[in-house]
Amino acid sequence: MPGLLNNQLLEDILTQVRPLIGRGKVADYIPALAEIPGNKLGIAVCTVDGEVFSAGEAAERFSIQSISKVLSLTLAMGRYEEHEIWQRVGKEPSGQPFNSLLQLELEQGKPRNPFINAGALVVCDMLQTRLSAPKQRMLEVVRTMAEQPDLAYDARVAKSEFEHSARNAAIAWLMKSFGNFENDVITVLQNYFHYCALKMSCLELAKTFLFLANEGRALHLDEPIITAQQARQINALMVTSGMYDGAGEFAYRVGMPGKSGVGGGIIAIVPHEMSIAVWCPELDTSGNSLAGTAALEILAQRIGRSIF
Amino acid sequence: MPGLLNNQLLEDILTQVRPLIGRGKVADYIPALAEIPGNKLGIAVCTVDGEVFSAGEAAERFSIQSISKVLSLTLAMGRYEEHEIWQRVGKEPSGQPFNSLLQLELEQGKPRNPFINAGALVVCDMLQTRLSAPKQRMLEVVRTMAEQPDLAYDARVAKSEFEHSARNAAIAWLMKSFGNFENDVITVLQNYFHYCALKMSCLELAKTFLFLANEGRALHLDEPIITAQQARQINALMVTSGMYDGAGEFAYRVGMPGKSGVGGGIIAIVPHEMSIAVWCPELDTSGNSLAGTAALEILAQRIGRSIF
Amino acid sequence: MPGLLNNQLLEDILTQVRPLIGRGKVADYIPALAEIPGNKLGIAVCTVDGEVFSAGEAAERFSIQSISKVLSLTLAMGRYEEHEIWQRVGKEPSGQPFNSLLQLELEQGKPRNPFINAGALVVCDMLQTRLSAPKQRMLEVVRTMAEQPDLAYDARVAKSEFEHSARNAAIAWLMKSFGNFENDVITVLQNYFHYCALKMSCLELAKTFLFLANEGRALHLDEPIITAQQARQINALMVTSGMYDGAGEFAYRVGMPGKSGVGGGIIAIVPHEMSIAVWCPELDTSGNSLAGTAALEILAQRIGRSIF
Amino acid sequence: MPGLLNNQLLEDILTQVRPLIGRGKVADYIPALAEIPGNKLGIAVCTVDGEVFSAGEAAERFSIQSISKVLSLTLAMGRYEEHEIWQRVGKEPSGQPFNSLLQLELEQGKPRNPFINAGALVVCDMLQTRLSAPKQRMLEVVRTMAEQPDLAYDARVAKSEFEHSARNAAIAWLMKSFGNFENDVITVLQNYFHYCALKMSCLELAKTFLFLANEGRALHLDEPIITAQQARQINALMVTSGMYDGAGEFAYRVGMPGKSGVGGGIIAIVPHEMSIAVWCPELDTSGNSLAGTAALEILAQRIGRSIF
């Protein structure tokens, strides 16, 4: 059935969703994101058989933002025992319309899952404890996974985010007050914002995240990134918590594990078959790419793929 | 690979999880549930090829409780347009440790999803509006789906639940105050508690819910129960919201859409392959069958099935 | 200094605040209240020396609404031991912008104080337990205190409130779920709404509430209404919790214990000196009479009275 | 009636409440407070006529902690217009059982009142903006008011508090995220903790706070500290918000404006008559001195003083 999949299909899908541009809103909480044109649109697919398809601005790099939360969790899974991770961060959806301190306070500083800001900050705190150079290490990892030695952080975005980091600082300090934060808050925030400021294209993202569709393995690397079971676990976490407060809607409409970023990118996984990356900067009210979600919904229907 | 599936495998799994009995807690908020022996254990599987496997007390009927929420949603999907349903109830996980009014108040009386009490009450309110005899109609439906004309409500359980219904009454009245409840509160509560008090066995449940694995169709009925897309949608809702505040953990460990009830039953779906029903009355802290979840986790590993 | 107090002063004050009419909003959640003209304005003062002053529509009756919560607490204080009351309702301000279930749920069904709806419902529940005819008994009490045998409930208002009682029903049921509500919900709601629907004039209110300025005694009755200490306690509760979420502002500006109702009435107490009743139907954002509060603020300045 | 007031009365009261020692709990969130013996007990009264009475350890200095919040508000009132203060901090009780971020987030970073941590931090932020040396200035002020040139901060307590300041840092950062915090978080926290670490005795506190009973004036200073109206306003704020989540209970039992600190001190005001300071380190569940509150309750009864 993946025979249906080709560049023309992807082009058709982009044509179909392009009219949605104008109905969403580009993230504007930092200037560096606000100035991205809202009409960027790209998609790329990598299959476990090594095929690559793409359409639109699939080769243009953008700020991956919260998609990086999957990468930091992946790194942590390789450096911590399973129970060490999950005693500090939960596995449940947050059920909150925005990234709130309310729940974090009621639940004694243990974030609900690794894909909300609080949870990703705990994961970054864990990486800071065990890695000698967490920013550099992340770069090496993604350069290897994407086979792109020039992948880099957008220093301007990282700086801009850090300058608007009051809420994330509040989150980190609140977790520290509950004993769930080990390292210097500013250092960890700096790492966190650099990860968010990674610039990657749809093609690079699809290639990087193929391991989640391929039992933990990249096609071009001998060593598995993580185990097959860990890959399934990350996919499970993405289904229940990967799309902010729109995870239920995304599962209902698209039917794939996915993770979005406020830069307008989404990665989605068809287990055992393919990874998909899509990019369109305008966001819906849940903070997920509006046209990007629509493109994934149509793609799922056209190739008859859903985990359900 | 379903060749691996046989009665002996199911027996082995029950043997493996039986030592967990004693670590959970039988629901005791109503006397009729509290008196069920905690060591009941049964499992049944129905495949889309018509095979049936079972082990333990798979033929003994128990109170299906919240598993009925999937049935009432299924009924509503056949009687309402899609948008009519989702304007009154959401599709997102609640992220709440218990069945709370807090979120319902903050979100103006619109329940987060159809599988929390508030959401199921809205669905029952919708059924009351469009069905002439909602209690009788549900009985007819499950008798047909399970091919068991003697399926019935446990009147004693329904009565006992109604007598302890203060919190559900509060939920219904709160929704009424926001204009999201049309019918008489007591009438709808009566329907709701009768649905919860349906008595079914694992074998009957697995057979009844096979339509969710089989694109909306029961094997023995000409008419589809719902469309293939609706079946996928229900599976998606079960993954994100089917296990109370343990949906993330269940997806992480078991990797299947599932719905539990405080009677100790769980149904789980392997799309395109099989439906599974398991029963063990002792619950974990999230309110899901403790040994039942463990049995599903082992089964998933043994037959190599996961949606991720 | 009360020599300053005379009808002309009260007239002057009304003249001064009349321009505020138009800046507030008449309560409109039930039709019977919404139709009251917003430009009604009256004030009355009773001193412990037996003097009575008034201005404006001081003799016109209106719906006293939540002012009745002080009367029901007073009745309960005469029929219950102190500890019996305060184990079921607290003495602390609610700190909530509106009448919320959120706090009631977090605090296990014990309302914060007797002057929020939840607390007044618990008090009415207590009265229902110990009085044979709570509605009739309240009438007798206020008729005696005000020396007005024709005081009555506005049946139309009571009926209209009952028809819009979904939120109060939710509150009562939530308390019942926590074991803090003994009697039939509908019966108690009926009592509660009748108390709210009492019609009294400023003159009648000032006279009725003089006991709070006079160590628990009405001037014309031999028996004290309550003890001097109980009168001080009620005044203390009014200062911290008598003005919905505007108690701090009222203490800051007016400096007297007070209790307001959404009908636009406010009673205020100068301990050892006088009781004051004011009426103007338009409310501020906290639900207190806007011009009424201003009139009390000016009166406090003009006669140099404040408890601070 | 203040003729009743003498040293012997105060001795009697201390004798009466001393048996309560052992029923409360010394604050232990920082080591420097935890090591204070729980059986310290002292009381001092200053009247507007210049009389001074005391008993017990009335001359021993202790950490005034949150009592300093009244001093910082007093300073701010002299350097800001009224509206400038109240647009950044509210006047309403918080209704929270502990010092929570929940409400602060729901109310967009505007603290409920100046006597909770968040509110006091905003006030300190305001002082940092307008004073060149806020720590030094506060010392000068209290030295002048108490006529004690050797009053000083306990550097060890200030340092210890700063080292345990994660929650207060979270609060400050959350307010910064809402634009309600102007200065460097660490600088303001340092000021705040120094104010809390002021060491004063009951005699010094009673003398310092007499201006609140004396229309804004200290007896020994020509210049008023604040206006008579401002003094009334502070008293009003203390009644509704001065005792953490025990303000209602304190008003009900004691009937005076008061402000407590976790060091075990309480100041209370009888307007136009006297200021009272009491000290006993063991706290009740609301964080107020247990025996200290009891002493004030008895004193109020014995001298027949209550604002109600």
UniProtKB/TrEMBL annotation, chains A, B, C, D:
Residues that bind substrate: S66, N117, E161, N168, Y192, Y244, V262
Classification via InterPro entries: Beta-lactam/transpept-like, Glutaminase
Signal peptide: none
Documented EC number(s): 3.5.1.2
UniProt keyword terms in alphabetical order: Acetylation, Hydrolase
One GO molecular-function entry: glutaminase activity
Catalytic reactions on record: L-glutamine + H2O = L-glutamate + NH4(+)
Protein family per UniProt: Belongs to the glutaminase family.
Subunit (UniProt): Homotetramer.
Protein name: Glutaminase
Source organism: Buttiauxella gaviniae
Lineage of the species this protein comes from: Bacteria, Pseudomonadati, Pseudomonadota, Gammaproteobacteria, Enterobacterales
Gene name of the encoded protein: glsB
